[in-house]
Specification:
Radius of gyration of chain A: 20 Å
Low-confidence stretches of chain A: 1-18
Number of domains of chain B: 1
Largest interface: A-B, 46 and 42 residues
CATH architecture of chain B: 2-Layer Sandwich
Distance between the termini of chain A: 51 Å
Radius of gyration of chain B: 22 Å
Strand content of chain A: 25-35%
CATH class of chain B: Alpha Beta
CATH topology of chain B: Alpha-Beta Plaits
Helix content of chain B: 10-25%
Shape of chain B: globular
Mean pLDDT of chain A: 91
Strand order of the largest sheet of chain B: 12-3-14-13
Bound molecules: iron/sulfur cluster
Distance between the termini of chain B: 59 Å
Structural class of chain B: alpha+beta
CATH class of the largest domain in chain A: Mainly Beta
Helix content of chain A: 10-25%
Order of helices and strands of chain A: HEHEEEEEEHHHHHEEEEEEE
Number of domains of chain A: 2
Largest sheet of chain B: 4 strands, mixed
Number of helices of chain A: 7
Largest sheet of chain A: 14 strands, mixed
Strand content of chain B: 15-25%
Oligomer: heterodimer
CATH architecture of the largest domain in chain A: Sandwich
Chain lengths: 291, 375
């Protein structure tokens, strides 16, 4: 019922982003800043940002009728082998836990696999897959402090004994999960669900999608690096990967090429999760030629 | 949206997927009059399935004291407040279901409990509906009431959890109608938690995905009843399979109690999910309360229950409760006993309609002593 309105809004948003092209500047750097991204690395200040308007997501349910932040500011650099994107948007609160009533902040960018102009911005469509790079604050906290345990969400929990624990009382998650008995009581961990990985070194994942139909799937091959930083009511997140990963689910990027991409952010404090997100229309994007 | 037929509402209703009933539908009858709130069922379930990290507040089975208890807190009242009307015209529901009253941007009308709503699993335990007048308990029958409501996932015919999941990570098994969350597909969006009217999908903060009652499917596959049913001290539970509407069989104890005698009723049928745990309503609770909870058939159900001593088909079905770990899919009875059979036609259980008893004279001549009843 809100579709016409939203589509109209979508067109307006698209129009205002159209004038600007996100240019991935060539930087003569080695792989290190891409493999260990830092949103505060000095070279970012030299790049030209693009501000893409964000809108609510009302194409599918569950929906979000107005965006959490008006704009997302995007920058990009490449070194001929790697590319990195830096996304910055306003978010007053840092939400880096998930619980019954807590959701994580997050950010994503989507690259159509087809050539420019052939893919819907709504996470692609049948026969028009998208590659999605997705960073999550909760995963970054896992990387920084270890996978969140019961005592992280419930500091005062008093536990007699967990299933599979060798002895009574609470034990750290990793110790408990060493036992097959305990893993049986945590099926998502035992079965390797991508959101339940208790050892994680990268706070982001690469996914594949063919539209808003529940098609989102974690890719088998992961080539992504990412890091975020929250300060002064803003998140700044860098997502990086090799230009050509050799993975057929990833877009092959080449210096000099023109393409397009779009962005999405999730504000945990607003209950954003899944399709409840703020996102942009497709933004034109080009990679500077390497010298 | 598709149009499906919900027999509990006696009308067609909207549902996001087409009507596609499973080959068999797991179903239970719980007799609320017999539950003693011992929580053996809760413990049996918990120790079997949910004693891992992150499952501290997950109770696939819980037993709450009505009218005030509820886990999570106020799970039913919060939805009833949002449901428009809830009017019945005879057996036909005239109000709107959770699929027909959907707020913009949602898939199902629901609510997300707050974290604290899970903090106390048995708040309101044993509390009665109101205060007793001073001395009322000396004056014969008083009118204060409470009862125990044992709850599990209803393995609904039209599950709200399935309707709400944007990832299609929840599915209903064709072979028995058990509703499961795919633990590899779920990404923890919690749409199902908000949508399930019975709040029987739980979020696990350690695995970061949703988990729900699995109907003890490994037992069902072996012809055995679930843990909560097998262990029930009060013998209030029977698990079997309910036939599709219009196909009820006299010799299926679940059909006999639900479809034929209508002694057992669905919990909050107005939600529209066609839940498959059927309750014998408590006989001592005010009718208006029970009608909101179990629909318009309450008065007749209580009358039929009170008459069960004279209704051998009903009595024989009810005496199968709690007497065998195996699933009875067919039963027969004589003047003396009721006999349950499994799918293969093998005898599962045989129960006397009247327990053997002995009458002893009040005066024992041998010991020259009077006998007293000491109940
Ligand atoms: S009771 Fe809730 S969790 Fe169980 S099938 Fe119905 S809607 Fe799903
Ligand atoms: S085991 Fe039976 S009697 Fe005891 S609380 Fe559970 S349902 Fe009630």
């Amino acid at each position: 019922m809100h579709l016409p309105l939203l589509l109209l809004f979508g067109l307006v948003a698209a129009a205002s982003a159209r004038g600007q092209t996100l240019s991935a500047h060539y930087v003569p750097l080695d792989a290190a800043p891409f493999e260990r991204p830092d949103p505060d690395a000095p070279f970012w200040a030299e790049t030209e940002p693009v501000a893409a308007p964000l809108m609510g997501q009302a194409i599918t349910t569950p929906s979000k009728f107005s965006p959490e932040a008006p704009l997302i500011e995007a920058r990009a650099v490449h070194n001929g082998a790697w590319i990195a994107f830096r996304l910055e948007w306003a978010d007053d609160t840092k939400n880096e836990r998930v619980n019954k009533d807590e959701y994580t902040d997050g950010a994503a960018l989507a690259l159509p696999l087809a050539p420019k102009g052939a893919t819907s911005p709504f996470m692609g469509g049948p026969g028009a897959p998208m590659e999605i790079l997705h960073w999550k604050a909760v995963w970054q906290r896992d990387v920084e402090h270890g996978y969140a345990d019961v005592t992280d969400t419930h500091p005062n929990a008093a536990i007699a004994q967990y299933h599979g624990s060798p002895t009574s009382g609470d034990h750290p998650l990793r110790e408990v999960m060493a036992s097959e008995e305990a893993r049986l009581a945590s099926p998502a961990i035992r079965l390797g669900n991508p959101v339940s990985q208790i050892t994680r070194t990268v706070p982001a994942e690469q996914l594949a999608a063919v539209g808003f139909t529940g098609s989102l799937t974690t890719q088998k091959q992961q080539d992504i690096r990412a890091w975020g930083r929250h300060a002064d009511g803003k998140w700044a997140v860098v997502l990086a990967r090799p230009l050509n990963t050799g993975d057929p689910q990833d877009k092959v990027l080449e210096p000099g090429m023109e393409h397009e991409l779009n962005f999405a952010v999730w504000n945990g404090a607003a209950g954003d999760v899944g399709a409840r997100k703020s996102y942009s229309m497709l933004v034109p994007f080009k990679l500077e030629a390497a010298p | 949206m598709s149009t499906v037929h919900n027999w509990q509402l006696d009308r067609a209703m909207e549902y996001p997927y087409e009507e596609n009933r499973s080959d068999r539908q797991i179903a239970y009858v719980f007799d609320t009059n017999k539950c003693i709130a011992c929580q053996t069922c809760s413990v049996a379930c918990k120790t079997t399935w949910t004693s891992g990290k992150g499952q501290e507040e997950i109770f696939w089975n819980n037993v709450e004291t009505k009218p005030y208890g509820g886990y999570p807190q106020a799970w039913d009242i919060k939805l009833l407040q949002q449901l428009d009307g809830q009017k019945w015209d005879g057996s036909r529901y005239e109000g709107k279901t959770v699929f027909e009253n959907v707020p913009p941007g949602e898939r199902v009308l629901g609510h997300k409990p707050e974290g604290d709503d899970y903090a106390q699993v048995n708040l309101g335990e044993d509390e009665v509906a109101g205060e007793l007048d001073r001395g009322a308990h000396y004056m014969g029958t008083h009118h204060m009431w409470m009862f125990y409501l044992a709850r599990i996932c209803n393995h609904c015919t039209f599950p709200a959890c399935v309707a709400a999941c944007p990832r299609k990570a929840i599915y209903k098994r064709r072979e028995d109608g058990i509703v499961l969350v795919d633990q590899t597909r779920c990404r923890g969006y919690q749409a199902c938690v908000a949508a399930c009217p019975y709040k029987k999908v739980f979020f696990n903060a350690v695995t970061r995905v949703s988990e729900k009652c699995i109907g003890c499917f490994p037992l069902i596959e072996k012809g055995l009843q679930p843990r909560c049913v097998q262990t029930c001290i009060g013998k209030i539970r029977l698990q079997g399979f309910i036939s599709k509407p219009g196909e009820a069989r006299e010799d299926n104890p679940i059909d006999q109690l639900v479809h034929i005698k209508k002694i057992a009723l669905p919990l909050y049928p107005q939600y529209g999910t066609e839940p498959n745990v059927y309750y014998v309503p408590p006989v001592h609770v005010p009718l208006n309360f029970l009608q909101q909870m179990f629909g318009p058939g309450v008065e007749a159900a209580i009358a039929a229950y009170r008459n069960a001593a004279n209704d051998r088909a009903a009595l024989a079905a009810m005496l199968l409760f709690g007497n065998s770990p195996r699933i009875t899919t067919r039963y027969a009875y004589t003047e003396e006993e009721t006999i349950g059979y499994d799918d293969a036609g093998e005898e599962v259980v045989r129960v006397p309609l009247t327990e053997p008893y002995m009458v002893r004279a009040a005066y024992d001549a041998r010991f020259k002593a009077y006998r007293y009843n000491t109940p």
